[in-house]
Amino acid sequence: MRTFFEEFKEFINRGNLLDLAIAVILAMAFAPVIDAVANGVVMNLVAAIFGQPSFDSIIIEVGDGALLIGTVVTALVNFVIVALVCFVIVRAYNKMKKPQLEEAAAVTEADLLVEIRDELRKRPLA
Fold first, then answer.
1. What confidence tens digit (pLDDT) does each residue in 76-86 have?
2. pTM across the whole model
């Protein structure tokens, strides 16, 4: 039982857990932005083209019941919109960061080589 609590303590103290919590909070804050783009822009374009702001009215009657095909289509369209917005944002962020990352990597590598050289010079010859 002791190792269980030690493992749990190690899990809680990992930096990854904090990173994940921050990511969830940011995602919740960003969700209204994506929702505004999906419902305020794209679905209004759907309404302009098809006459309705969603596909929810597409129904297939089966006996006494109905298959709500339109609800599925609307959910798929919303998913594609969210995925597209996330892709565009990540792509723009990566393009913005790429020159900085390459520059930082070159500096870090050079600094590391200088540090190794200096440490080797400090060693006494055997």
1. 888 888 788 78
2. 0.53
Q: In the 3-class helix/strand/coil scheme, how is the chain assigned residue by residue? A: CHHHHHHHHHHHHCHHHHHHHHHHHHHHHHHHHHHHHHHHHHHHHHHHHHCCCCCCCCCEEECCEEECHHHHHHHHHHHHHHHHHHHHHHHHHHHHHHHHHHHHHHHHHHHHHHHHHHHHHHCCCC
- What is the dotted CATH code of the domain comprising 2-122? 1.10.1200
* Cα 67 from Cα 13, distance rounded (Å): 48
Q: Where are the domains of the chain?
A: 2-122
Using one digit for the tens of pLDDT, what is the confidence trace for 20-77?
Answer: 888 889 889 988 888 888 788 888 887 888 788 778 888 899 999 999 998 998 888 8
